[in-house]
Design brief:
The protein is α/β, with parallel strands linked by helices and 593 residues long. Helices cover 30% and strands 19% of the residues. It has 17 helices and 21 strands. The strands form five sheets. Strands 19-18-17-16-15-14-21-20 form an eight-stranded parallel β-sheet. It comes from Podospora pseudoanserina. In the C-terminal section; belongs to the DHPS family. Its cofactor is Mg(2+). Keywords: ATP-binding, Folate biosynthesis, Kinase, Magnesium, Metal-binding, Multifunctional enzyme, Nucleotide-binding, Transferase.
């Protein structure tokens, strides 16, 4: 910057007379190798000034010092002001705090006239004051969730409900992970997770809210990092670093804790956690950790009276889900259960449980192609009595009840009657109220892959290679259904997936799905979620084996059930419970250890 010093020395008879220096700064183009030319000499002509400067700003500056008494009357040391036709536009007292100066000293301010506008130079207008901070602006934060006392998953779900109730909106959640304790080792295993929240609270106010939730849920801190029924920590907040004696953001323990990085990697795998190290992503920190001696696993709760599914535990047992169709037109057992006396139906259900079924799937609407859609009232009349019957006569058995429906109203009534799981063949797409209803009820939902409706699905079975092919198409569309469920408020740990054999898949496509089930399980965005596979008696088995009658496809079904267990299925849905339970027992012995 070249500085033109306009020095005006003022002589006064008062002993406190001072000298004022005013500066006119002119920015000149870069010269040579890019060095900025600086000078304090006068500009010799207005022509050279106009050719060299890009913009200019008036600065009132300079130190005040006592002039020597021998100086003559006021004179211009630099005449550039004359060349630029500077005019004095203001004269005021320099200081209100020094009366001894203001009596004898006038501050003279010079500026360029409005008419002087060199070519290609835009004189900046007076800048507006920045807008005040918006106290209602929504911030994004990530909260760690943990518990190792009592109903661990229940405590975490209560904490999430409290967050929502206090206006701290839970937008997404990770899976829940069961982990070994750190630091204090003599305590029970933890359930850990994380949630993405939207809040208007500042960091310390958010911390206060979390601690108040902990206190309201009865947390009592006896030992630091010791047992607790609920633990809530701020991990990240709005991409900032925050240091306070009560709170550090990002959380200092993130890089060393697998039970924190695993949930965060589900939510924000490609996000840098430290603003000062934007090249280090969440998944990079997770990959840098040493392998766990005991691999941690996700947990999917099914009900309060049954253990959760541990989808990443290699020694987990496969659930056998018995099919109880209360319909007259299902493809293989239509009418089999609708005309039975109550005692006969009870006997059939008991045989399911005695043979090894841990779940019973009750359906009142056939989803076979070309079957008519019944009314909501008719579907309720079919499924509710069966659910109530199971609950009343088998209260001493830890049986899980699933309701097979794509209607939100039927799902809600079924859960009220005693159902634990909603099994939706449409993945929540055929009834827009299904996902919000399940979120409000807090139940686990199985999202099946299907295109269109049962009436149109077989015409939608094309999966171009350009769009990922069969497996890529199924995976991408299931990722979308999971995202829709999370947007509606369904916790990720409450989601089960189903590849949808026979639904928008024909013939050998179903075989390909069974071949690549393990690939689906570890597809980005679907990792850690449990899978249900329903291949029982379906038409593709008949095509391969040459058995036209569905009830006679037992052996073909057995092979698909074994393949499903090998591929990582957590639940197999079957008609022939006694036979398939034996297949599952053997398959578990081979592949689950």
């Amino acid at each position: 910057m070249t500085q033109l010093r306009i020095l005006k020395r003022i002589r006064s008879t008062a002993p406190s007379t001072l000298t004022l220096s005013a500066f006119l700064s002119v920015e000149t183009p870069k010269v040579g190798s890019g060095a900025t030319h600086r000078a304090t000499s006068r500009l010799r002509s207005v022509t050279s000034l106009r050719q060299n400067m890009k913009s200019f700003t008036r600065i009132a500056a300079g130190s005040l010092r006592q002039p020597r008494q021998s100086l003559p009357s006021a004179r211009h040391v630099c005449h550039s002001c004359q060349n630029l036709r500077l005019s004095r536009i203001e004269q005021r007292q320099f200081s209100q705090t020094a009366p001894s100066l203001t009596d004898s000293f006038g501050f003279k301010k010079y500026t360029l006239p409005r008419s002087f506008k060199p070519k290609e130079v835009n004189l900046p207008a007076k800048m507006a004051s920045p807008p005040p901070p918006d106290p209602a602006r929504k911030r994004l934060a990530y909260i760690a969730l943990g518990s190792n006392l009592g109903d661990r998953i229940g405590w975490i779900e209560k904490a999430c409900a409290e967050l929502d109730a206090r206006g701290i909106k839970v937008k997404r959640t990770s899976s829940l992970w069961e982990t070994e304790p750190m630091y204090v080792l003599d305590q029970d295993r933890f359930v850990n997770g994380a949630c993405e929240v939207e809040t208007t609270l500042e960091p310390l106010a958010l911390l206060d809210a979390l601690q108040d939730i902990e206190n309201s849920l009865g947390r009592k801190k006896i030992i630091d990092k010791g047992p607790r029924n609920i633990d809530l920590d701020i991990l990240l907040y709005d991409n900032i670093k925050f240091n306070h004696e009560r709170l550090t953001i990002p959380h200092i323990g993130i890089p060393e804790r697998e039970f924190v990085l695993k949930p965060l990697a589900e939510l924000i795998p490609d996000k840098p956690l430290d603003p000062d190290r934007p090249w280090t992503l969440t998944r990079d920190l997770l990959d840098a950790l040493p392998s766990s001696t005991t691999p941690i696993t996700t947990m999917t709760p099914l009900s309060a009276h049954h253990p959760p599914i541990m989808a990443l535990n290699p020694a987990r047992k496969t659930h056998v889900m018995g099919i109880l169709n209360m319909t007259p037109d299902s493809f293989s057992d239509g009418g089999q259960n609708t005309s039975l006396e109550e005692q006969t139906l009870i006997s059939n259900i008991r045989s399911f449980l005695d043979a090894g079924a841990t779940m019973i799937d009750v359906g009142g609407q056939s989803t076979a192609p070309n079957c008519p859609e019944v009314s909501v009232e008719e579907e309720l009349n079919r499924v509710l009595p069966a659910i109530k019957l199971i609950r009343s006569h088998f209260s001493d058995r830890p049986v899980l009840i699933s309701v097979d429906t794509y209607r939100a109203s039927v799902a809600e009534a079924a859960v009220a009657a005693g159902a634990d799981i909603v099994n939706d063949v449409s993945g929540g797409s055929m009834d827009p109220e299904m996902l919000p209803t399940v979120a409000r009820l807090g139940t686990t939902i199985c999202l099946m892959h299907m295109r269109g409706t049962p009436a149109t699905m077989n015409n939608l079975a094309e999966y171009p290679d350009s769009e990922g092919g069969l497996i890529g198409g199924i995976a991408k569309e299931l990722v979308e259904r999971v995202a829709a469920a999370e947007t509606a408020g369904v916790r990720r740990w409450r989601i089960v997936l189903d590849p949808g054999l026979g639904f928008a898949k024909v013939g050998w496509q179903n075989v390909d799905v069974l071949r690549h089930l393990d690939e689906l399980r570890f597809w980005p965005g679907l990792q850690g979620l449990p899978w249900l596979v329903g291949s029982s008696r379906k038409s593709f088995i008949g095509r391969v084996t040459g058995v036209p009658t569905p009830k006679e496809r037992i052996w073909g079904t057995a092979a698909t059930v074994a393949a499903a267990v090998q591929g990582g299925a957590d639940v197999v849905r079957v008609h022939d419970v006694r036979e398939m339970a034996q297949v599952v027992a053997m398959a578990d012995a081979i592949w689950r250890y």
